[in-house]
Design goal:
- The chain has a single domain (about 5-330), classed as Ribosomal Protein S5, domain 2 (2-Layer Sandwich).
- The chain has nine helices and eleven strands.
- The protein has helices spanning about 60-75, 100-115, 125-130, 140-145, 190-200, 205-225, 225-250, 255-265, 290-305, and strands at about 5-25, 30-50, 55, 85-90, 150, 165-170, 175-180, 270-275, 280-285, 315-320, 325-330.
- Strands 1, 2, 3, 4, 5, 6 and 11 form a seven-stranded mixed sheet that branches.
- The longest helix has 23 residues, at about 225-250.
- It is globular and about 60 Å long.
Length: about 325
């Protein structure tokens, strides 16, 4: 049934950590393969209401407009009837090009909201394909669908979206400290594509080792809630992938300032540190809320002396999101 005037839909999409690729060699017929984790915060929240004309407001509204225009265009090519214009409000947005999946989550949230307003029975994978998401990794799509810790199976030739092959709740007692450099963006768009094409072939033996680390160390440790062993596996995966991408991003980690903070955290015995996707966002994994708050305070104090003259880093506490994206209806109180 049509939405009454003033009624709309609100969609919340979690950020994600992309923790590494498993097989950049591709010799078995599938390439990439990823591991990752959905986060409680930051997140993207989109509200959509039927409207007489298209209207956009909030942060990244220019990006929302491009996504919306593209979505309506591809819906028309697919002969799907999307006749209702929408008023889109971006209530919250994941920082752009920070390595936290901002583009995919914004696209999926907008696509889901527009589909609901127009009564289109499109699944999240269908929306992702229409909006050209998931070209290399399925972690963002899986984060929206199910949340938790995720493994995707990579892309086969001419494949559109990597299949999700493993999903498990992330322990609630494991906390994450994000380290963000607000003035720096990671590689994206044509620069990202060029970086992939410029890198040398990935050794098959190293791809095999990464898959073994995931299957025989990281996943069992996750199930058994063994943060020390899980951290050892994650650190090894991060080192291998970071070093492979170093020629494209300048070093193992994109930001030298964040790299210094991660190194300091490691010296304090933190179980796992790394960079999400192309960064620059870094992360540290610890057990317990007290531990993560202590780490945050120590790094803030350390940065005051060690990073003088550098950018002001943000140290943000978050946890895993084990539920995925959410959608709810609402009534505009002004109508």
């Amino acid at each position: 049934m049509p939405y009454p005037p003033g009624n709309g839909v609100r969609v919340s999409a979690p950020a994600r950590l992309h923790l590494g690729f498993l097989d950049l060699h591709g010799g078995l017929g599938r390439r990439f393969g990823s591991i990752g984790l959905a986060l409680e915060w930051p997140r993207t929240i989109v509200e959509a209401m039927p409207a007489p004309r298209f209207y956009y407001q909030g942060p990244v509204s220019h990006r929302a407009q491009r996504i919306t225009e593209h979505f309506y265009k591809v819906l028309s090519k697919q002969r799907l009837q999307a006749n209702r214009a929408v008023h889109l409000t971006i209530k919250e947005a994941i920082p752009d090009h920070s390595g936290l999946g901002s583009g995919t989550q914004l696209a999926l949230a907008i696509g889901r909201a527009i589909s609901q307003v127009n009564h289109l029975p499109l699944s999240i994978p269908e929306i992702a394909a229409l909006l050209d998401r998931g070209k290399r990794s399925g972690i963002g799509i899986g984060s929206f669908l199910k949340g938790g810790f995720l493994v995707d199976g990579g892309l086969k030739p001419n494949g559109r979206i990597p299949p999700l092959i493993c999903r498990h709740d992330f322990p609630e007692e494991w906390w994450i400290l994000l380290i963000i450099e607000p003035t720096l963006q990671g590689l994206h768009g044509t620069a990202e594509s060029a970086a992939f094409h410029s890198l040398p072939p990935f050794p098959a033996e190293q791809a095999a080792a990464l898959c073994r680390l995931t299957m025989m160390q990281a996943l069992p440790a996750l199930v058994e809630r063994d943060i020390k062993t899980f951290g050892q596996a994650l650190n090894a995966i991060q080192a291998a992938i970071g070093d492979y991408f170093a020629p494209a991003q300048g070093a193992r980690f994109a930001s030298p300032w964040i790299a210094a903070a991660l190194q300091q955290a490691q010296q304090w015995g933190i179980p796992a540190v790394g960079q999400s996707s192309w960064g620059p966002t870094g992360f540290a994994l610890v057990e317990g809320e007290t531990a993560v708050r202590n780490l945050q305070a120590r790094l803030i104090q350390w940065a005051k002396g060690a990073l003088q003259g550098g950018p002001k880093l943000q140290f943000i506490i978050t946890r895993a999101c084990n539920q995925g994206g959410k959608m709810e209806s609402f009534v505009d109180p002004t109508k």
